[in-house]
Amino acid sequence: MKTAFFFPGQGSQSLQMMAGFAGESIVKQTFDEASDALNQDLWAMIHAESADLINQTENTQPIMLAAGFAVWRVYQARGGKTPSVLAGHSLGEYTALTVANSLNFADAVKLVRQRATLMQTAVPQGKGAMAAVLGLEDNVVVALCEEAGQGEVVEAVNFNSVGQVVIAGDTAAVERAMTLAKEKGAKRALLLPVSVPSHCALMKPAAEKLVEAFAEVPFRLPEISVIHNADVCAYNDLDKIKDALARQLYSPVRWTETVRKVVADGITQSAECAPGKVLAGLVKRTDKNLPCAALTDIAVVESLIASQAS
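^ that's the sequence the OP posted. Answer follows.
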């Protein structure tokens, strides 16, 4: 049985998000390591009374990386089999590379914090926006973005599943695209509560600075194949890996294609490795024949491992 592990990005964070792993000391240890790397208590943030801090991009990214890596460590410690392939949605690509031992965990935590800061400073607060468009074909969303641009940026940036596309760009252009989407029969077109218009051309300045940051971080060749968002390819070349990560900032997340690729490559089982069920839902909508376990607590982890022995 060939397994794929998927790692989510921003949007899957929540207060008490690691509650399903209470008593697993390696979870707290992982968050302690991340907190030490940043000199900031991430564990306290996810146990606060308000979600304000964990929803700030510069905190969300290291928190989600720590959460995914912590669940991975639990899975490993319980004797789970090494997956055949890994993929991450946006930020989750960095978690995948960390699991593949391409990045040291502490280095990865600091790198995604820097990535988040670069993204936030690239576009002033309020200038950019993202919106989800539901119920239209991908090509229709791409075309309406071109129509709505009018000299500004608005692009289809997350191809999440059939009939679910996220757009991003200048706020006014995104709003025009939402109006067009509704006129063309979209079931819904709604703004997302984010402060950064990820994966569109507005992120190119951030990508250029991110390349400079890569030069200061030791990368290794992945020990497990990692499929990249920007081109749905896996690389065994460090320069190509870094280039794919840089392009990811201003290129669409091709998630539907990623799921279809792992199925075409013979994957018969998958898991979302972090608390949350966003990717498991997208997998189900893309290919109902690919089971995807959402590893939200220790019981699901143990069930997945038991299934590997049968």
